Amino acid sequence: MRGGTLAAIAMAGVLTLAGCAKDSGNEGQAAGDGGGEGNCITAQAPPAPESSQRESEAQGDVDASDLRVGLAFDVGGRGDASFNDAAAAGVDRAKEEMGVGKTTESTAAGTESEDAKQQRLTQMANQGFDPIIAVGFAYAEALKAVAPRFPDTNFAIVDDNSVEAPNVTPLVFAEEQGSFLAGVAAVYKSKNCHIGFVGGVDTPLIEKFEAGYVQGAQAVSDNVEIERDYLTPAGDISGFNDPGKGNVVAKSQIDKGADVVYHAAGASGKGVFEAAKSGGAMAIGVDSDQYEQKTLSGVRDVIITSMLKRVDVAVYDYIRAVAQDDLGSLPERFDLSVDGVGYATSGGKIDDIVPVLEGYKKQIIDGKITVSDTVSG
């Protein structure tokens, strides 16, 4: 994790942008949004870019029919409406567009041992699956043990770059950048100038979501109040698959006055959405466009946006790179500049503030705002 120097630079960038508009009242605020009394937003929004569309690079057809892809899910697996589903979507797209020959999937249990993770990866490798994609940092130690035993097999791991092996490719993201925009959206849509964050497990990875969210909210408001809670401590990954606990914690934040709650809690997020619906609040999803998830159709009306962590894009691009024998073409980190993170507009609930979000997005891409990936205060 980057240290205090980067955090200081990050806040300096935020304060420089916000400071020039501290006396501007509600200039740049979307009409009817941002604090019921009109005093929540204290920074003028940066100008929106002339075009928010990133030109896509032309890509020719790729034949991946010789590949046999193994997908080792984290806890929750396919159907979690979040992180794992995003990885699955990347493989599904690769099958459809590149003709991947065969795939296999296996899901981690909430309390399984390192030996179980090693066995899962080993079994896939022994069966000839290549590449094998480990979904989540929880596979890091297992992959360190397994990858050297299969030097001719390609492995990738999502959300970890600690495995130093020539046949392992890290797929990591700038979650803090996407979460910064979620924080901006939360403040603009809050009526109480009071928002919340619910993390699944208190780990450095999930703290990146919290860090960006808090910085984004504070960049646009000196007055916003932010609730922050985690469902489980580090080492207890059940926080990613406990909707009941997500409901209880989110309800507590809503009872304290938070009217927009952002979760980074995997399948536990469904409980956050349910608490928002029953408590008359709004919510922000994570990883996938959760407004469009069929398993969340009953609570979609409270989902104003989702912070998109494009695990699907990273997995698809990785499979493509393996098929082309060109792993060097992958970015070192999937950030805003390559649309590796972003935000969803499904449902139209943030259409009025898209110019604001695009303005901040451009500031981050251009380096005028540096978003820290560590929590301060």
UniProtKB/TrEMBL annotation:
Taxonomy, superkingdom: Bacteria
Compartmental location: Cell membrane
Record carries keyword Metal-binding: no
Keywords (A to Z) from UniProt: Cell membrane, Lipoprotein, Membrane, Signal
Pfam families documented for this protein: Bmp
Membrane-spanning segments: none
InterPro entries associated with the record: BMP_lipoprotein (IPR050957), Peripla_BP_I (IPR028082), PnrA-like (IPR003760)
One of the record's GO cellular component terms: plasma membrane
Membrane topology: Lipid-anchor
Keyword Transmembrane among UniProt keywords: no
Boundaries of every ABC transporter substrate-binding protein PnrA-like domain copy: 72-371
Disordered, as annotated region: 21-65, 94-115
Protein known as: BMP family ABC transporter substrate-binding protein
The organism's taxonomic lineage, starting at the top: Bacteria, Bacillati, Actinomycetota, Actinomycetes, Pseudonocardiales
